[in-house]
Structures are given as C-alpha cells and as structure tokens.
C-alpha cells in the first residue's frame, strides 16, 4: 500500500509539469498579446512594458524564468488587473469557488447515493423507474440551462432567493449555484449507485449474509454498500473535474466572484500569468483528488490489497 | 420399407425444414435492442430531429440569418410563421434552432469519429503488444486523464480563434482516453485466444491481426461507448458555445442559442426554452440508445 502510494505520488509530479509546460507554450504560441489594443502604443513604451514582464526575451528563457519563480511559490503579477499578483487574485477567488465546489460534491454524494440505493432496493418497481427517469433528465439538462431556469423560478417567480450576486457570502446567495452545480452529478451518481448496487445485491456474499439470517438493513448497510460504492468512489475524480469546469459557467451566470470567472476573462485578455495560475490551481486540485480517490479505493477494495 | 432414393429424399426434405437460420451475435443484439421501447422511441425522435435539421430550409419561409424587422424578439406566433418566435435580431427562432441542430449533431458525430479512430487504434495497439509498450502507453493515458482538459480546450478556442474544424479536433482529442482504456482491456483478453494465435502462427502481420481480428471483436463495447460519447461531445460543444467560444455568427448552435436565451430569460423565456428542449431531448435520446445498446450487447444479462 505504501509503495503504491509513493508510486502514485511520483506520477503526480511529471503530470503537473506537463500541465504547466503545455499551458505555457500554448498561450505564448498563439497570435495576439496582452498589449494589443485599438491604438498601438508608441514602440518605446511597448518595449519597456514588455521588458517589465520579461516578454521581450526568447520563449525558452521566459519559460525558464517562469518555472524558476514558480518553484519559489511566485505566480507572478497579473498583467491586466494592475497592482495585483496572481496569488492575491487566486486567494481572493478561491474561497467562493471552493465552497461552491465542495458543497456541490457533498450534496451530490449524499443525494446520489441515497436515491441510487433507494431505487436499487426496489428494482423494477414504479419508484425505481421514476427515480431513474428523473436522473436521466438530470443528466440530459446541462447545468448552464438549469442555472437560468432555477434563477427564473426561485429568484423571479417565487422571489425567495436572490437571482444572482454574492452579497457578503450569505447562505441565500450560495443555494442556487450549489444546486445548479450539484444536480447533474446527483443524477449521475444515482444511476451509477443503482447499477452497481443491483449487481452487488445479486452476488454470492450477499446471499450468504441473507442466508445466515442477517436483517435486510444490516445486509445493505454493512455488506452491500461497501461493494456498491467502489465505482462511485472512482467516479469522484471525473466528478470533481466536471464540477470545476461547471463552476466556470455557473460562476459567471450567478456573478460569483470565484476563480472560474477570472479564468474566462484572463484567457480572453491574454493575461498569461493569471491563466497559468488558475490552470495550475485546478490541475493541483484534480491531481490531489485523484490521488486521494486511488488511496481510498485501495483501502476499500480487497483485491488491491497487498498482491 | 423405403428404398434408398426415398430415404435420401426424405432426409433432404427433413434437412431442408430443419435447417434453422443461424442467429449471429449481432442479430441477437438487434432483436434485443428493438424490444427496448425507450431505445426505439429515442431512435425515432432522433431520426425526426435529424430529418428536420436536414430539410430545415424547406420548413420555414425565413432564412436562418434573415432579419424580420416587423417582429423583433416576439413570442411564438403561428400566424406570421415564426412558430418559435424571433430572437433579439428579429431572426426566426425555429429555423435557427434547426440550424443549431445541424452544427450540434455534426460536431457530435465528427468529434466522436475522431475520438473513435484515435482511441480504438491506441487501445488496440497497447493491449495487443502488452508488456512494456502497454504500460508506457497506458501510463501516458493516466497522465492525460488527470489534466484539467476542459481548460485546455477553452484555452485552445480562445487562442486559435473560433473555428468549427478546431472544435471537432479538440473535442475528439479530449474524448479518446476512455475509449482507449476500454479497447485496451478488451484486447488484453483477446490476445491469448486461439484464433489470434492461429493467425500469428500462419504468419499474419501484427498490423493485420490488429485491424482484421482484434478490432472487429471489440466493436460491441466500442459502439456502446460511442453512443454515450456523442451526447457528451454535444454537451461540451454547447458549453463552449455558451461561453462564447463556439461557432460564429450568423451560424449558430444550441449552446449559442441557449446563451442568448439565458440573457433575456425574464422577458423572452421562449428564447431559452426551445433550444434547451431540443438539446435536452437529443442528449436524453442518445443516453437511452446507449443504455439500450449496452443491455443488448452485454452478454451478462442474457
């Protein structure tokens, strides 16, 4: 288990390195730069500005400088949002994004597993079909459609929640974005749980548990859930990635001051350091979560324990 | 007592009546698929949407980029022919939704084809050769898996401008990973089967074995996954278009229409509802067909 953990950690480092490298060169090779505007700057001034951001040096050298600074924890200054460093901007945006993302995933797990198990225990009943039908709708309606609809119904028609904005981070501003982010994941996890639960309930060890006279509740809670949750756990990695990309849209629809909003703006403005910073943060989070998932999986799945 | 010729005749006729038409795996699967009402219904609905998208110009007196100055952002109205209403520029929404269907479906199919070609070839090669080659190739896939891919696609679109061709390639290049994993797993188990060994023993080249013997035998799971990739690609394209990174005006896609509708949702709900319903319906149908295909092709549930 330990050597497995170390091996997985060692893969994470080159992965992160690849992310940084690809993102860096992709941004730079593209036509256009951060100082393109309607009225061209006088050449001397443009030269000075470029020199200030090291943009006048050869690409390889810029890359070296960037990696060097990054290793010291310096993401560099934002080019477009003056007087702010990328680290400051990310620190300012991260709490909102993290709250939304983590709550959405927690919500998705609780309700997804709950509905999925509920449906699986009543396989092929009307309840089962109803839950799975709704889940299918949840998958088919993308969150960028769901978000404006939620905002219309709860914000405008019922007028019980604000349609957008963040206020001072009060709870009522968070409810709709979190639900919009969580719904597709709830639906997906419910389907996943139901599928694997049905399969597990037909397996031999469950029959044994029942045969020895265990109460149904114990059979499900103690034996079946553990096996049925393995696919859900391995889906957590992709789920996090989906929630993060989803939050880019959701944040801009609801006007949440998170890092997702920065990303789109920064990419459109060619704010190189800010784009890099956001990509790196997201990559680190996804890689870390994948690592955690692998570890949990290793602990839960007896087949993976000490081969 | 029968003489010999009578006997043969009888045997022949018996043989003729008893000759049962063989049911191949595929035919079995087809029968099972057509028994699945949800899947058949979905196929019919998708067929209708596709047909509408193809004959779109014949269905309305308005062109997709034609501005009707008399009706700017007006609700659905059967009398003036704008059955889905008009958008903020006075263009007929019905025609625009169908033109959006063209783009969305085309992107879905083509990008999936790209992912299919890359994924199947990659997975089959990794699985067939096994050993070091396999572990290096699959480690590479593992690394790619943990990249925040959507961010790269977004960057790609921002950086290289909005270009439909690029959308196909970018989405296809993102979606091939799972396909490669599935095909590799299947190939690994096929690799030691007798017919592959026989081909090997008779001197068929590796390349030919992969394309003639391995790939046709992994088609089942590949088709199922392909059907589930199409809605994913359509969804991703809409997502990009929603962010303003997809196709360009005056062309349109469902994502663009939804994004336009979402902006004026309070005043003109129809501008969001119609494209959203078409998108959701399409995704819904593809998912049902994928599920149906999986049930039909999966030998476990027989």
TrEMBL record, chain A:
GO BP annotations listed: transmembrane transport
Keyword tags: Cell membrane, Membrane, Transmembrane, Transmembrane helix, Transport
A Pfam family recorded for this sequence: BPD_transp_1_N
Membrane topology, record value: Multi-pass membrane protein
Localization per Swiss-Prot or TrEMBL: Cell membrane
Main location: membrane
Domain called ABC transmembrane type-1: residue spans: 94-293
NCBIfam families per record: PRK09471.1
Protein known as: Oligopeptide ABC transporter permease OppB
TrEMBL record, chain B:
Residue ranges occupied by any ABC transmembrane type-1 domain in the UniProt entry: 101-290
A Pfam family recorded for this sequence: BPD_transp_1
InterPro entries, alphabetized: BP-dependent_transpt_permease, MetI-like, MetI-like_sf, OppC_N
GO terms (BP aspect): peptide transport; protein transport; transmembrane transport
Compartment(s) of residence: Cell inner membrane; Cell membrane
SUPFAM superfamilies named in the record: MetI-like
Main location: membrane
Chain segments annotated as coiled-coil in the UniProt record: none
Family matches, as PANTHER family: OLIGOPEPTIDE TRANSPORT SYSTEM PERMEASE PROTEIN APPC, OLIGOPEPTIDE TRANSPORT SYSTEM PERMEASE PROTEIN OPPC
Xref: NCBIfam families: PRK15406.1
Similarity field: Belongs to the binding-protein-dependent transport system permease family. OppBC subfamily.
Annotated protein name in UniProt: Oligopeptide transport system permease protein OppC
Organism: Thalassospira lohafexi
């Amino acid at each position: 288990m330990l050597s497995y953990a170390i091996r997985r950690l060692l893969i994470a480092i080159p992965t992160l390195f690849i992310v940084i490298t690809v993102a860096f060169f992709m941004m730079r090779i593209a036509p256009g730069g951060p100082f393109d505007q309607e009225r061209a700057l006088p050449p001397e001034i443009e030269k000075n500005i470029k020199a200030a951001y090291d943009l006048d040096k050869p690409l390889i050298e810029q890359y070296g400088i960037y990696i060097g600074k990054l290793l010291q924890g310096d993401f560099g200054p934002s080019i477009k949002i003056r007087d702010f460093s990328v680290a400051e901007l990310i620190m300012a945006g991260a709490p909102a994004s993290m709250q939304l993302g983590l709550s959405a995933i927690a919500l998705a797990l609780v309700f997804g597993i709950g509905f999925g198990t509920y449906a699986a225990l009543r396989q092929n009943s009307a309840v089962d079909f109803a839950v799975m039908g709704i889940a299918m709708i949840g998958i088919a309606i993308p969150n960028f459609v769901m978000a404006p609809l939620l905002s219309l119904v709860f914000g405008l028609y019922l007028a019980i929640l604000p349609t957008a904005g963040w206020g001072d981070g009060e709870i009522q501003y968070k409810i709709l974005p979190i639900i919009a982010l969580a719904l597709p994941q709830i639906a997906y996890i419910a389907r996943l749980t139901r599928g694997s639960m049905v399969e597990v309930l037909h397996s031999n060890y469950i029959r044994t548990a029942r045969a020895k006279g265990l109460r149904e509740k114990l059979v499900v809670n103690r034996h079946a859930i553990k096996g049925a949750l393995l696919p859900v756990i391995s889906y957590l990695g992709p789920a996090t990635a989906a929630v993060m990309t989803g939050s880019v849209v959701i944040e801009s629809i609801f006007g949440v001051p998170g890092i997702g909003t920065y990303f789109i703006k920064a990419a459109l403005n060619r704010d190189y350091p800010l784009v890099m910073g956001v990509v790196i943060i997201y990559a680190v989070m996804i890689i870390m979560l994948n690592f955690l998932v692998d570890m949990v999986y290793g602990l839960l799945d007896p087949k993976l324990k000490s081969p | 007592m029968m003489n010999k010729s009578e006997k043969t005749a009888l045997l022949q006729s018996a043989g003729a009546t008893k000759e049962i038409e063989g049911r191949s795996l595929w035919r079995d699967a087809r029968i099972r698929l057509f028994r699945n009402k949800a899947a058949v219904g979905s196929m019919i609905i998708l067929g209708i949407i596709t047909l509408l998208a193809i004959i779109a110009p014949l269905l309305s007196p308005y062109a997709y980029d034609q501005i009707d100055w008399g009706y700017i952002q007006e609700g659905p109205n059967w009398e003036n022919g704008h059955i889905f209403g008009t958008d903020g520029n006075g263009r007929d929404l019905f025609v625009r939704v169908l033109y959006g269907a063209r783009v969305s479906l085309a992107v879905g199919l083509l990008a999936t084809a790209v992912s299919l070609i890359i994924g199947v070839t990659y997975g089959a090669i990794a699985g067939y050769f096994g050993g070091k080659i396999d572990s290096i190739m699959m480690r590479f896939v593992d690394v790619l898996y943990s990249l925040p891919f959507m961010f790269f696609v977004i960057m790609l679109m921002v950086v290289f401008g909005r270009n439909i061709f690029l959308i196909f390639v970018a989405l296809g290049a993102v979606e091939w990973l799972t396909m490669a994993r599935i095909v590799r797993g299947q190939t690994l188990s096929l690799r030691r089967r007798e017919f592959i060994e026989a081909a090997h023993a008779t001197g068929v080249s590796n390349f030919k074995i992969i394309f003639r013997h391995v790939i046709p035998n992994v088609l089942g799971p590949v088709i199922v996954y392909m059907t589930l990739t199409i809605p994913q690609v359509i969804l991703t394209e809409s997502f990009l278009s929603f962010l303003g990174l997809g196709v360009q005006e005056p062309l349109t896609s469902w994502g663009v229409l939804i994004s336009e509708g979402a902006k004026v949702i309070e005043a003109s709900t129809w501008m969001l509802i119609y494209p959203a319903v078409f998108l959701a319906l399409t995704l819904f149908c593809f998912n049902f067909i994928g599920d149906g295909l999986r049930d039909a092709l999966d030998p476990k549930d027989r």
